[in-house]
Amino acid sequence: MSSTYHPTRRALIAGAAALAAGGAALAQDAPAGGQDAPPAGMADFLFVQTASGMAFAADANRLTLRNVSPVTLFFSDRPERIAGNMKTDRFVPFWGEGSDSFLSDPPNADLSILEDGVLRQAVVVLRNPELIGEDLHYTVEIVGGEMPVLGGPTSLFIDIIGMPLTPLSYAGVARRSYRRAMLY
User: Fold this and answer.
1) Measuring CA to CA, which residue among 130, 135, 124, 131 is closest to residue 157?
2) Of the residues 6, 61, 62, 72, which has the maximum number of CB atoms within 10 A of its CB?
3) Where are the extended beta strands (E) located within the chain?
4) Are the C-beta atoms of residues 138 and 159 closer than 8 Å to each other?
5) Is the pTM above the cut of 0.70?
6) Is 184's pLDDT higher than 70?
């Protein structure tokens, strides 16, 4: 008896998130001294941005997330397990904050695009975020996969960055009993 499995959109996105998180964790260099955990008071955070569509201008290496969600999700790895969100318009200036920022060390990201029930993926290096209206633009370098010119529903899974346990250092804002945060 043969059956054909047709994953739901939720299953596809959850699978992409798991692969992106696992790949990002494996790709990260081990800290000096063989430590597996970030320094005390720090956690590794990943970010997720979603959009109703995407466009890519190859001549300018410009990725546009069309009608990007006004909220960027973030979550940490073990042992902290912190999850939350921040306004996307706050994420853009956050890009260059701190000595170990995304500006100084651009992140890798997995771009997952759902096209007619088929998940397409490209791995990119992100630079120069610019939010114009409801569109978020990045300059990208394609590392792997094939970048379509246009695409449907899109999720961007952005690599790890080490940050204080309270993202954006708002004196305990994220330290709720459920380890959930909203930064606005």
Assistant:
1) 124
2) 72
3) 42-57, 62-68, 71-76, 83-87, 108-115, 118-132, 135-145, 150-151, 154-164, 180-183
4) no
5) no
6) no
